[in-house]
Design a protein that fits this description.
By secondary structure, the protein is an alpha+beta fold. The chain has one helix and five strands, in the order βββββα. The chain has a single domain, classed as SH3 type barrels (Roll). It has one helix spanning about 55-75, and strands at about 5-15, 15-20, 25-30, 45, 50-55. It starts with a strand and ends with a helix.
């Protein structure tokens, strides 16, 4: 099973960006999203260090809500 984490783009430098989710920052490659219009403030799904898809803020929030529910059930 693969898991992609929703993160918000903070800054972009060519094909690299700094993304943040819940206070955790990571350098993420934009290589797989060439041709996509990605800007600081956008949300992306990140899988093994690569942004793979742009998503809405609502979808990102809904994903985190589901993650929270899963974690609460398994605690």
């Amino acid at each position: 099973m693969c898991l992609a984490i929703p993160m918000q783009v903070r800054s972009i430098d060519r094909f690299e960006c700094l993304c943040e989710a819940r206070g955790v920052e990571r350098q993420v490659s934009l290589f797989m999203m060439q041709g996509e219009d990605v800007s600081p403030g956008d949300f992306v799904l990140v899988h093994v260090g690569y942004a793979i898809q742009k998503i809405s803020a609502e979808d990102a929030a809904e994903s985190w809500q589901l993650f929270d529910e899963i974690l609460a059930e398994n605690a």
